[in-house]
Automatic annotation (TrEMBL):
Lineage, top ranks: Bacteria, Bacteria division WOR-3
Cellular component GO terms held in the UniProt record: cytosol
Protein name: Glutamate--tRNA ligase
Gene: gltX
Catalyses which reaction(s): tRNA(Glu) + L-glutamate + ATP = L-glutamyl-tRNA(Glu) + AMP + diphosphate
Free-text function comment from the UniProt entry: Catalyzes the attachment of glutamate to tRNA(Glu) in a two-step reaction: glutamate is first activated by ATP to form Glu-AMP and then transferred to the acceptor end of tRNA(Glu).
Motif annotated as 'HIGH' region, chain positions: 8-18
Biological-process GO terms, alphabetical: glutamyl-tRNA aminoacylation
Length: 471
């Protein structure tokens, strides 16, 4: 049975690259009726936090990536790592290293002056018995290093094909650190073996680690999983995506109003090419269509503009009722509505604004005036003209007399008023728009006036007149 895993480290938020890797593992498992395992690699004790564990779990849940087993924590498995490291030692395939970091750095500095590339010089492999006994008496901390055999190590990558490395390029790497915790390359081999992982699907920045891990599998006479190394996600400058390109945490995009199904769809296309030119997929369609063989070797650019476009398309597909349900938490959190808000009013607002939304947070920015009237007047210099105060004052008296507050009646009355005054409609429409919204753009003015209601419109126009009078 196919069994894959995602193994994030709780030293930070779930990175979009890790999320894409998790998605591909999930799709691969579901495609082949396999298992998707969640493992938390928390052996970096100083930097790992419970808060980040919860953020990672929440992010995976938001993406809809339901794991079948776990979460398992590496920190719960220390005894097993020590047991396997002891076996490798007893088999003569590893040795204790008493070198301090300072000693290694000094030898490295001197060696590099020759222009050669440093790798650990096996000093502790050749220690005499007396030296070992002295270090033990001194209470020196010791790590365990794995002995790299001569020869070459190769493997078949499901994406990149055959990959080979000369073992001479690999140093005797640490498998157990002097603090008693395992190194990354050692822990993942033990975990993947014990969990029965059949396919390791991860970023191609791990390709250099794979020969080391294969050597450990061989040393332990364990069956090796298959490997597939995914292309990196790139920033717009085509370098590896990082914080300097913008926010890279999955939770940020959730908090900014990206729909989970849009984000999953977007991530799926960062490296994988469907057989046709389709761009929109449900999760079930992704499971059905996904094929690891159609994942490319070249990095894919994280295009925020495309993400926003895709998200806007998903928003348009929502019914007004679905959109209300999805947007409500954002509006409550931003204190634009209360928990007992007028659902009919919000429904009217969303019916008007739905086509303009790229995210669930956009209404807070471009539709703030539907909920609050403490806005500033932006772009007011564009609508000022001589006589604006008098014209708007007369128009205010006019709208106070409107009995049936409907957009068609409001529009007809305004046009009649402008004809009677001998002024162009823009001399009333533009000032009224900025008076009741604070901005110079947006949906149709008369639709906005109808939704806001007569009382609110009158109050806001009066406030604007006070502003003009005071200015």
């Amino acid at each position: 049975m196919v069994k894959v895993r995602i193994a994030p480290s709780p030293t930070g938020y779930l990175h979009v690259g890790t999320a894409r890797t998790a998605l591909y593992n999930f799709l691969f498992a579901r495609k082949h009726n396999g298992k998707f395992v969640l493992r938390i690699e928390d052996t970096d004790v100083k930097r790992s936090t419970e808060e980040m564990v919860n953020v990672i779990l929440d992010s995976l849940t938001w993406l809809g990536l339901k794991w079948d087993e776990g979460p398992f924590f590496q920190s719960d498995n220390l005894k097993r790592y020590q047991e396997i490291a002891k076996k490798i030692l007893e088999d003569g395939k590893a040795y204790y290293c008493y070198c301090t970091q300072e000693e290694i750095e000094e030898r490295k500095r001197i060696y590099q002056k020759t222009g050669k590339v440093w790798k650990y010089d096996r000093r502790c492999l050749h220690l005499k018995k007396e030296e070992k006994e002295r270090f033990e008496r001194e209470g020196r901390k010791k790590a365990i290093r794995f002995i790299i055999p001569e020869g070459k190590t190769s493997f078949h990558d499901l994406i990149h094909g055959e990959i080979e490395m000369n073992n001479s390029e690999i140093e005797d790497f640490v498998i157990m650190k002097s603090d008693g915790f395992p190194s990354y390359n050692f822990a993942v081999v033990v975990d993947d073996h014990d969990m029965g992982i059949t396919h390791v699907i991860r970023g191609d920045d791990h390709i250099p680690n794979t020969p080391k891990q294969i050597l450990l599998y061989d040393a332990l006479s364990w069956d090796k999983p298959e490997f597939a190394h995914l292309p990196l996600i790139l920033g717009e400058d085509r370098s590896k995506l990082s914080k300097r390109h913008g926010v890279v945490a999955v939770s940020y995009y959730r908090d900014e109003g990206i729909l989970s199904e849009a984000f999953v769809n977007f991530l799926a296309l960062l490296g994988w090419s469907p057989k046709d030119e389709r761009e929109f997929f449900t999760m079930d369609e992704l499971i059905r269509e996904f094929d690891i063989k159609n994942v490319g070797k070249r990095g894919a650019v994280f295009d925020i503009k495309k993400l926003l476009w895709m998200n806007s398309e998903y928003i348009r597909k929502l019914s007004i009722e679905e959109l209300m349900e999805r947007i409500e938490p954002y509006l409550i959190k931003s204190e634009l509505i209360m928990k007992d808000y007028d659902k009919g009013y919000l429904k009217n607002v969303l019916t008007m604004m739905k086509e303009r939304l790229q995210t669930l947070r956009d209404l807070e920015k471009i539709g703030y005036y539907f909920f609050k009237d403490d806005y500033k007047y932006e772009g007011i210099e564009k609508i000022l003209y001589e006589g604006i105060y008098e014209n708007l004052s007369y128009y205010l008296k006019r709208i106070e007399l409107i009995d049936e507050w409907r957009k068609d009646i409001i529009e007809k009355d305004l046009r009649i008023f402008c004809d009677e005054k001998g002024i162009s409609t823009k001399k009333i429409i533009h000032p009224v728009r900025i008076a009741i919204t604070g901005i110079t753009f947006g949906p149709g003015l008369f639709e906005i006036m109808e939704i806001l209601g007569k009382e609110n419109v009158i109050k806001r126009v009066r406030r604007f007149l006070e502003f003009l009078k005071g200015g």
